[in-house]
Amino acid sequence: MKLVAVGLAISLAGAGYWYWQSTGSPAVAAVQLQGPLPAQTSLSPTPRTQFTPTPSTRKGYYNLDVVGDFTLPATKTITFCGAGRNLHVQKDPTKIFRRGFSAVDQSRMVPNVEIWKDGFPANGWKSSLQTSQRSVILYQNYFRDSFGLAWAQNSDKANETLYRAVPSGNAAGAARPINRNTLYQACAELSGGCFGFGDCPPSGMKSTYGFIFLDIENDGANMTNRQEQANLYTYMIKTIKENVSPQTQVGSIAPVLHNSVGYSKADDYKATPDWLWATTAQHTATSRQRGMPNDIVGKSFGDYADFQMPGTYYAFPDFDYSIRHNGDNSRHWLASLLGEQEVNMKLSPKKRIAWQWLFNTQSELPNSSKAEHATPPVVAEGMGIFYWFTGAYGVLFWDDHQDLVPDSPPPADPSQKGLGNDRNYACYEHYVHGLWRLFKHHGDLFNGRETYLNESTECSYDGGQTWYKYNANQLKVRDLPVVRAIVNGNQVLVAATKAYAQPNQMSRVMMRYVQNGFNFYTTITLKGDEIYLGRATMNR
User: Fold this and answer.
1) With contact defined as beta carbons under 8 Å apart, do 80 and 102 qualify?
2) What is the pLDDT of residue 142?
3) What's the half-sphere exposure (Cβ side, CA atoms, 13 Å) at 425?
4) Phi-psi sector, 30: left (phi>0), alpha (psi -120 to 50), beta
5) DSSP conformational letter for 235
6) Which residues, listed in sequence order, are joined to residue 20 by a DSSP beta bridge?
7) What is the rounded CA–CA span in Å between residue 32 and residue 379?
8) What is the predicted pLDDT for the residue at 24?
9) What's the predicted TM-score (pTM) here?
10) Angle at which helices 426-435 and 377-386 pack, to 10 degrees?
11) Phi-psi region of 111 (alpha: psi -120 to 50; beta: other; left: phi over 0)
12) DSSP character at residue 438
């Protein structure tokens, strides 16, 4: 089906017409250029550093010195919860903050330097970390094991869970022991987090972590229990926020407004917000008896969250160059990275922080039963570049392994081969190289005044005759080069790649920006699937 609007005049650097083509994705606007192509401006390619990656034969090690010092712009954040900080921390605890990371999870902090772990801190001691450099992940075991909340593991117990202790009618003045098996107590005791940093405020305890990430993953409540689940999530995040400093930001890996699960399908762009994010708290038959307050009625988890966490782990098919990746149902590393952000940014204006991991997640897909496959170099580098072209605020950089012991003997247990210390971690080097290329050379563009074009990036694949604005799914199914751009004043920064291209395959694509008085055109030549990054000054 094609709907053509012939004769509709437009003024985008030359008269033409719009036509709308139904492709299963949202309508695509194409502009037919009439007349000669305007003069082009060459992009200045961003340097690559020359380094020798850790060889595949070396396990349990990576080198952070493949690049020199650089830091993130103040408008962005990357929390390190990866593996192997122990490889360099004894010599220089600050190095991680000079290699693109801006915060560290408490499980990776240096004891009694960054966080006090031996009882109460020594008198006058304070953490070497600023509030913005501190983070903590609360997994379901925090609620389940420390406070006896079985709901954290089994959401169908939502209707049995106590919000807070309900008065039992004890005589006036009688002491009543604290009931720690309540959601209130689990959230309120987080206020003591300031003790570990030696900076509890005089007015009373408040957690002084910069970020609190929730990773409970019990959001699969059955239909009859959904209201109870929404009530608990709303109460939980509100109560946490009442017990943290004004600088602390709180969010969760779930609920996310929409989870594409790595597939970047056309239908994802029709998604509506997930029920657990959007459902407002309402009293149920037993909620008052279990201590639910009235002040959360009409509020949702999404109302209280400081940020959302759209993102997806990769499965091995995303790394497999021997299969096709351009079906609507196909997995595609870059389409999933971009598409997840494109969909979710439209569902909520809240900051986005993706959970990123440089190994395949465990799944039923081929070669994915174990997390033994590292992201290929170009994927790792591309994650460190393309993700930031979506306008995202941050990343939680995670690994299922913590400390690394380089050159360990292969594990005797076959099930452990390819895991932990038996992995090659050169992918970390390529990821940091991507961050270095972007932020070392172009950090000035991320000052809060930039515009992220996303799927409004306008490209031509026929030498400038026809111009399209494609979302990630549309680029995937058409097997086209991916181009994304950021504009800040008269500066334009462009990232481009032809995902899954063969090493000697050459691709050409044109990009233009013809808004706000600018008339910028350029041609990009891509070799293989390398990540291109270039910048130019635009003329009016």
Assistant:
1) no
2) 98
3) 28
4) beta
5) H
6) 3, 29
7) 34
8) 44
9) 0.93
10) 30
11) beta
12) I
Token pair 């190994």 is found at: 359
- Which residue, chain included where needed, has tokens 């030696």? 198
First-residue to last-residue Cα distance in the chain? 39
Sheet holding 466-469, edge to edge: 2-4, 18-21, 28-32, 466-469, 458-460, 506-513, 520-527
The DSSP result for 122-150, as a single string, is PTT---SS-GGGEEEEEEHHHHHHHH--G
State the Cα–Cα distance between residues 305 and 437, nearest whole angstrom.
32
pLDDT confidence of residue 219: 77
Give the pLDDT of residue 274. Answer: 96
Residue closest to 81 by CA, chosen among 401, 312, 370: 401
Name the nearest CA neighbour of 443 among 520, 483, 385, 390: 385
- The token pair at 301 is 């988890």
Bridging pattern class, strands 458-460 and 466-469: antiparallel
pLDDT below 50 — which residues of the chain?
A: 1-24
* Residue 223 CB partners (closer than 8 Å, separation 6+): none
**β-pair type (2-4, 18-21):** antiparallel
Q: Which residues, other chains included, contact 90 with Cβ-Cβ below 8 Å and sequence gap of 6+? A: none
- The answer to whether 252 touches 309, Cβ cutoff 8 Å, is yes
- pLDDT score for 18: 30
Q: To which H or E segment does residue 525 belong?
A: strand 520-527
pLDDT attached to residue 2: 33
Grouping H, G, I as helix, E, B as strand and the rest as coil, residue 388 is helix
Q: Which residues contact 50 (CB under 8 A, 6 or more apart)?
A: none
Considering all CA atoms of the chain, what is the largest pairwise distance in Å, rounded to the nearest integer?
A: 90
* Helix (H) / strand (E) containing 338: helix 333-347
User: Which of 130, 127, 183 has its CA nearest to residue 158?
Assistant: 183
Cα–Cα distance, 192 to 154 (Å, whole number): 27
Alpha helices, DSSP H, located in 72-199: 140-147, 183-188
Quote the pLDDT of residue 71: 97
Instruction: Give phi and psi for 141, each to the nearest 5.
Output: -65, -25
**The predicted structure's pLDDT at residue 17:** 29
Cα dihedral: 214, 93, 351, 340 (round 10): -80
Q: What pLDDT, on the 0 to 100 scale, is given for residue 183?
A: 98
Task: Give the 3-state secondary structure percentages of the chain, helix then strand then coil, rounded to 5.
Answer: 30, 20, 50
Nearest to 162 by CA among 149, 153, 175, 143: 149
CA-CA distance, 34 to 13, in Å (whole number)?
Answer: 9
Q: What is the pLDDT of residue 469?
A: 98
CA-nearest of 130, 108, 111 to 199 is 130
